[in-house]
Design brief:
Structural class: alpha+beta
Number of domains: 2
Largest sheet: 5 strands, mixed
Number of helices: 11
Strand content: 5-15%
Shape: elongated
Distance between the termini: 30 Å
Order of helices and strands: EEHEHEEHHHHHHHHH
Strand order of the largest sheet: 1-3-2-4-5
Radius of gyration: 26 Å
């Protein structure tokens, strides 16, 4: 969808602002254009795949927004207000607002260096940080769904007690007493072990979520392929936890105690929820653009 401001007849082609609906820098740039009476065309790359591909191509594979294309073919990516003012002062003709000639801006143009070279590393770092944060959140959501299934299964057909999975996670640090008591009583709440088990589980979930985010970014996981990849990833996590992590921390018998079928289902749920993330929100995972030869 495009939110276009029309130019009067005879005016040059408008500035094109490629952005997203929830981008604060995009709103800042639009507000600055509006305040100075500069016409522009706003293009939402979340709703325009061709525009998204263009943004990636000019930003080294990153969906960096706002990416602003000027009529002379030059670009600004994630500019500050000062950079935007300096650029418009030199390219927008005729000047549309005397504010563009503020003496405080007179030397700005000399400070503007090729933007893509100057911010390439910064853009990559920013994108990676955002990707890892969103991946950690997705991992914790997947971990919460996994824990809910494990606790319901433990309280029902496994007959091991509702909070037993949390006590089992905390047992390498606090000992097995809370876990054994829960298995005997069914409903047994010990707040300390339960909270510690939940914290440990969520930290591992966030870590695996970040790793999955990097894999999704590097392999361009999209659509049903992302869902299938998530399921496979859940099984990989199962293998790593069962045969490496749990034996190291002294909980190698946990899968057998829970039951392998239920343990497998838990990890498939974890992987499925992770896979649904790039399936339902592909814009969260920037894709590497194919560089022209």
């Amino acid at each position: 969808m495009q939110d276009q401001q029309r130019l009067p007849p005879g005016q040059p082609a408008p500035i094109k602002l490629y952005g997203t609906a929830f981008c604060g820098d995009c709103r800042m740039a639009k507000r600055w254009f509006d305040q100075h009476g500069i016409s522009y065309e706003s293009i939402n790359i979340e709703q325009d795949e061709r525009a998204a591909t263009y943004v990636q191509q000019v930003n080294g594979g990153m969906r960096s927004v706002p990416t602003i294309l000027f009529p002379d073919g030059s670009l600004l990516v994630e500019p500050t207000v000062r950079e935007l003012a300096a650029k418009c002062a030199s390219t927008v003709q005729p000047p549309v607002n005397t504010a563009l000639h503020d003496p405080s801006l007179s030397s700005m143009e000399e400070q503007v260096v090729p933007h893509q070279q100057r911010k390439q590393v910064t853009m990559m770092n920013t994108t990676m940080v955002r990707l890892l944060i969103v991946g950690a959140i997705a991992g914790m959501v997947a971990g919460a769904m996994m824990a809910m299934y494990a606790m319901i299964a433990s309280a029902t057909f496994l007959s091991q007690g509702f909070f037993t999975p949390l006590y089992g996670i905390a047992s390498p640090l606090l000992g097995p007493s809370a876990m054994m008591q829960s298995m005997k009583q069914g409903i047994y709440l010990a707040a300390g072990p339960a909270l510690l088990g939940l914290l440990i589980h969520m930290l591992w979930s966030a870590l695996y979520g970040m790793i999955f985010a990097l894999i999704a970014w590097a392999t361009h996981l999209r659509g049903m392929l992302a869902l299938m990849g998530g399921l496979v990833y859940g099984l990989v996590v199962l293998v790593v936890m069962s045969f490496i992590v749990l034996p190291i921390v002294g909980a190698g018998t946990m899968p057998a105690m829970i039951g392998w079928p239920s343990f497998v289902v838990e990890h498939l749920i974890f992987g499925m929820v992770l896979g649904l993330w790039p399936l339902l929100r592909p814009a969260d995972v920037p894709r590497l653009a194919t560089r022209p030869a």
